[in-house]
Amino acid sequence: MKKKYLKQVTRDLYDISRRIREIDRFYRIMFDCRSERFEVHNLRQAGNTYCLTVPFDRLDERTLTLVRKTRVARAEDVFKDIEKHNHVVEKSLQDDVRKKAETMVEEILCK
């Protein structure tokens, strides 16, 4: 189903719309007229072709870097990065709880 508010970007200043197809020949850049944002779509996906919304107000090298970083082919690396980050956050929270508990114990014992 083609959405009328999406317009395919075929020409742009830095030729990102062509260069993105070097990453994956099924990638296309669309402009969402409702949100006024660029999106990356993958025509190989059946039905919903949406991949991501470009978080920048223009197409440039950052867009290509983001697409390379978030590709499905890199999913395992992305999940590892997420797990590593979650582990750091969890350890930090545990350290905070431990420090608060130690402080409370000291206060109780010193009374």
Report on the architecture of this protein.
The chain has 111 residues and is of the alpha+beta class. It folds into 2 domains: 70 residues, no CATH class; 40 residues. 49% of the residues lie in helices and 17% in strands. It has 3 helices and 4 strands. The protein has a 4-stranded antiparallel beta sheet with strand order 1-2-3-4, with helices on one face. α1 runs parallel beside α2. The mean pLDDT is 90.
In short:
This protein is an alpha+beta fold and 111 residues long.
Element pattern in H and E: EHEEEHH
Give the number of DSSP strands. Answer: 4
Which percent range fits the helix content?
40-55%
Mean pLDDT: 90
Distance between the termini: 72 Å
State the domain count.
2
- Net shape: elongated
What is the element layout, followed by pairings?
Layout (H helix, E strand, L loop, with lengths): L5 E3 L7 H8 L3 E6 L4 E6 L7 E4 L7 H10 L4 H36 L1
Antiparallel strand pairs: 1-2, 2-3, 3-4
Please name the defining characteristics of this protein.
111 residues; alpha+beta; 2 domains; four-stranded antiparallel β-sheet; elongated
